[in-house]
Amino acid sequence: MSEPKPPAPTSTPTPGDTYKGWLFKWTNYIKGYQRRWFVLSNGLLSYYRTQAEMGHTCRGTINLATANIAVEDSCNFVISNGGAQTYHLKASSEVERQRWITALELAKAKAVHMQAESDDSSDDFPTAAPVSAQGGSSCISEVQSTLRTLSSKVEDLITCNDLIVKHGSALQRSLSELEGLRVGGDTGEKIRQVTERATLFRITSNAMINACRDFLSMAQSHSKRWQKALQMERDQKIRLEETLEQLAKQHNHLERAFRGATVLPRSFSNPTLADKGGALVKGDASDEDDDNEFFDAMEDPAEFITVPADPKFHRRSGSNVSGISTETGTDDQSFDDLSLASNTESPQPLELEPVRQRRTVIPDKPNYYLNLWSIMKNCIGKDLSRIPMPINFNEPLSMLQRLTEDLEYSELLDRAACCDSALDQMCLVAAFSVSSYSTTVHRTAKPFNPLLGETYELDRLEEYGYRSISEQVSHHPPAAAHHVASQRGWTLWQHITIDSKFRGKYISVMPFGNIHLQFHSNGNHYVWSKVTSTVHNIIVGKLWIDQSGDIDIVNTTTKDTCHLKFSPYSYFSRDVPRKVTGVVEDREGAAHYILSGTWDNKMESAKIVESSQGCGGTEGKQKTVYQTLQPKLLWKKYPLPENAENMHFFSSLALTLNEPEEGVAPTDSRLRPDQRLMEAGLWDEANIEKQRLEEHQRLERKRREAQANQALDEGQDIEGYQPVWFEKRTDDCTGESTYVYRGGYWEAKDRQDWSLCPEIF
Questions:
Q1: How many whole angstroms separate alpha carbon 42 and alpha carbon 40?
Q2: What separation, in Å, do the N-terminal and C-terminal C-alpha atoms of the chain show?
Q3: Beta strands in 599-711, from DSSP E residues, in sequence order
Q4: What CATH topology corresponds to 378-590+637-707?
Q5: In whole angstroms, how far apart are CA 403 and each of 16, 79, 463, 511, 619?
Q6: Rg for the chain (alpha carbons), in Å?
């Protein structure tokens, strides 16, 4: 077989150049060596049957970064990447083979270096935030490209130096052998070998000289530009930081100016119509925190319009009211005197002298900084209850204590228990359901996830007439059961499962399950659920919380309903922030009360005296226009304690929830060591203790799973974890499977018999 000589390269191969040529590749024992077109580029050696195949069909590629190059004889060499691919190649001459060997070794050195550089690229060349100026971005790219090129040139010099040493030694040996020869027949052969060695040395030396020349030229031309570009980058980074800080300050000032220039209406009814009727409620508009930031949501148009009624009309008769029962036409004294027997300007809890003095302060929150985004960036779309979090993002209360904190305004239920009218009672129940969110307006920290079997009791019989017990009944998903019994005529229970997801810019906390409330005097049974809580500005800015969604409260006894709408905040809305609106309807669907207010401040009710269909609806629907009496205050938030901003913004009740109590169950949240350490300000110790408790819980779960598997193998049916104080039943009203209080806790406390409690701390 004739072996055509491949064309000589036009230039000495250097890193970054594409080296091409014909080589003979071993195929099999039948066909032997076949001529193939090889292309060396970017650390990859590829081959084709012909040059025409380069555009569409590659027959094979080998990565030189992990390849081994070995020379067999004067023309043959082997390239292998560890056994998966092996190319047996042959050049037309030793000089041509050496050209390929030089090019391959240079390309391999560059590929290895580039691979190591890419592994360390996150440390050597961190990806910065995009700069605003196009010139700054191009400077960064140019500097990085120059650094990589200079580095590759240095590697070329090292490789060429090794090759020069190798070939120089071979040339020296050949010259020594030539000097020792006698004049004879071998002289011509030796002279030919010396000539080839000298040629190889000249090729390698030329490559070395070219690489040195390129390096020096590159270094001289880019040295000053490189230094200037680096300095520009530093200056630009400083300017960007200063600009960002200035923008944040301007944003804060603009927000303050906007709120200062905006006069909020004193009533949540239509302000123009309210002025005409002259029936505005007395009271201040809700105060706003200067540091809050808000999420821009689409403004949702109101479903109805309220108009103050003429008092003369109300005194005449209720017989002219269309669609309203005669009860609404009577004098409004029953609701005012019985249901709202309190100071409408500043409602206060019932004046009862407490038996013991509860604490009013806790240790100030330490000023520990931790980047939330550095932890949350890997949690997008995940259930946060399954992700261990440091206590730096917590507040020193457990989820069981947060559930108990819903009782902050239990006097609303005490007043509702005294109502003769189910509709009046519904208004107070609705106000109670809204009041539970007022404690969250500044509380962006998450409560501790309770351990399985953890409990919490709150005994306020002598102060407020109720006592509460809650228990963590499931760990995944996290679920808690809560039961409250009041001596003032009501019982409340709930089974809540929490699902929390991180969406990138915000965290959504979605409670599932129903809250049940029953009054002892008339048997009215109310059922409702909670809305979604959203924590915004996870990536940048100050954290803030919003409540959004709908609550449908149903009196399963009388079939009366109340629909509450929590409007998400919007910069573009003219409504009051954190607005809540609602309508109380009887079983026939006739509206009797309009509820309005904010979930962080107060709720009011206005009795409807007339309704009619107006205009201005969407999708061809007409809005309902309600004529109402003057709004009456149902609930107003208590002011926060002094120095609350340094005490996790806890309310007066929240400050007492973790106060040590004697005689509580050994599983009580007050005895949880990591939570206690955090409250004391020992956050490092609290993090260590939290890890210990979580590891103990994981081992306990594995032990239970092993017991269940063993019982299954033995053909036994073993139940999973069973709560101590709650049991699962089917609710008669909703048909849901829920955990309800089985009894026995307070009796066990009287006996101080906690033998049923698991060891969890």
A1: 7
A2: 85
A3: 602-613, 624-628, 632-636
A4: Porin (2.40.160)
A5: 66, 70, 19, 11, 40
A6: 40
Query: 378-590+637-707: same fold as 18-116?
Result: no
Strands annotated E in 11-165: 19-28, 32-41, 44-48, 60-63, 68-71, 76-80, 86-90
Distance CA 480, CA 454 (A): 9
In contact, 279 and 270? CB cutoff 8 Å: no
CB of 525 within 8 A of CB of 514?
Answer: no
Strand blocks (E) in 523-569: 525-528, 532-536, 544-555, 561-566
- The position carrying tokens 């204590």 is 401
Residue whose structure tokens are 């109380």: 584
Strands 446-448 vs 394-398: parallel, antiparallel or unpaired: parallel
User: Both tokens of residue 132?
Assistant: 């605003």
Contact 37, 55 (CB under 8 A): no
Burial class of 356 by CB neighbour count within 10 A (0 to 12, 13 to 18, 19+): exposed
Residues 95, 202 contacting (CB under 8 angstroms): no
> Mean pLDDT across the stretch 115-142?
48
Amino acid in position 191:
I
pLDDT at 290: 39
Beta-ladder partners of 47: 38, 60
Cβ pair 76, 126 in contact under 8 A: no
Domain segments of the chain: what residues? 18-116, 378-590+637-707
Tokens representing residue 317 in the block: 């008769």
pLDDT of 316: 36
CA distances from 84 to 31, 37, 71, 87, 187 (A): 21, 21, 19, 10, 45
Identity of the residue numbered 548: S
The pLDDT, as a whole number, for residue 747 is 95
Q: What count of other Cβ atoms lies within 10 Å of the Cβ of residue 476?
A: 10
Distance CA 37, CA 43 (A): 17
Question: What letter represents residue 161's amino acid?
Answer: N
List, for residues 706-759, the tens digit of each pLDDT value.
888 887 777 776 677 899 999 999 888 778 889 999 999 999 999 999 999 999
Question: For residue 152, which phi and psi values (nearest 5 degrees)?
Answer: -70, -35
pTM of the shown model: 0.58
Hey, which of 122-136, 253-267, 674-688 has the most confident mean pLDDT?
674-688
Sheet with 60-63, edge to edge strand ranges? 60-63, 44-48, 32-41, 19-28, 86-90, 76-80, 68-71
> Which CATH architecture group holds 18-116?
Roll (2.30)
Note if the bond before 477 is cis, omega within 30 degrees: yes
Euclidean distance between CA atoms 253 and 258, whole angstroms: 8
Closest C-alpha to 429, from 522, 514, 524: 524
